Amino acid sequence: MAFLSDTLARVKPSPTIAVTTKAQALKAEGKDVIGLGAGEPDFDTPENIREAAKRAIDAGKTRYTAVDGIPELKAAICAKFLRENGLTYTPQQVSVGTGGKQILYNALMATLNPGDEVIIPAPYWVSYPDMVLLAGGTPVPVVAGIETAFKLTPAQLEAAITPKTKWFIFNSPSNPTGAGYTRDELKGLTEVLMRHPQVWVMSDDMYEHLVFDDFKFCTPAEVEPGLYDRTLTCNGVSKAYAMTGWRIGYAAGPVSLIKAMGTIQSQSTSNPCSVSQYAALEALSGPQEFLADWRRVFQGRRDLVVSMLNQAKGIRCPKPEGAFYVYPDIAGVIGKATPSGTVISNDEVFATALLEETGVAVVFGAAFGLSPNFRVSYATSDEVLREACARIQSFCASLV
Ligand SMILES: Cc1ncc(COP(=O)(O)O)c(C=O)c1O
Hints:
By secondary structure, the chain is an alpha/beta fold. It is built from 14 helices and 12 strands. The protein has a 7-stranded mixed sheet with strand order 2-8-7-6-5-3-4, sandwiched between helices. The site of pyridoxal-5'-phosphate (PLP) has 13 residues, from helix 5.
């Protein structure tokens, strides 16, 4: 009898976490490493949020809570959806989990049966296909390449839908590309979905607040109210409020789905951390002005990185609408060799050689379902980004 489960054989460990771990190990050996792999803001959680958590601890809010969230936080989430997205939800329609990741996982576990298909635009956040596999479903990646600015077209979505399609996962702005769908672009997709009533929509709005220039964020249930009854609108405090370690994500959707997600959660983690829930309550209901300041900082970094990477030989770097990632195309360096003789045969070789020869850690595109590319997370200072991009430029210039 095998000790490890067949389920485990279907999935792989997160490659983004693997890159971060490798970069940290090289750093610990004393190497000069710049990590551009981690998907988290470099800011500290704002003080008012930290203070709210301290108050919660001192007030004894340190016990089990209701499975899918304390009532005060659910009320604040309903207020957030109304205020920012024009969406009306009741607390019974809201689920709070241990990070956005657990929310998505609960929803897939609660709904997928063997053979059920989940459409995932590629490049995708690394966890979507593996979570679908863990839940027993079949991921159906559909590539949206650089020629459509990494955005799925209505025709592509239409062609991917089958009678077995259960979910369409939508993520805008996107990890790993930063691509954000305009209202018209999203409307094109929702029109397709309206023709297929068996397909549910999982909208992962994690990067809602990280949008640049005049880009206006929108979400499917708001753009097409006809989809409200089969949409799970997912979000969280991790990225917007620099709270990745607190582990709070949430979603709103039909009561039957929310209840089913609660059943899964009740038998896995019981409830999200009590103290973190009070911190998230303050994040969502406290001052929001600093979000605009952070957006400006990220926008400056995006402009810096896009400009410097486009000056690297063989790299094409589109300018994304949001998040804190860019996803440059490296078709121009494939087939070339490093001075030490390594042939850059694919993006994984590129990322490994870049790390070993220049100390810059990025995540290779194959991990996200579209090659040859790599992902840069620019959630670090201008000074560090300038140095990293300069190293990438000289690495590319050295290839023959
Ligand atoms: C698109 C996307 N969704 C969800 C998550 C998960 O966020 P959390 O840290 O709240 O679990 C991430 C984190 O990287 C992400 O990039």
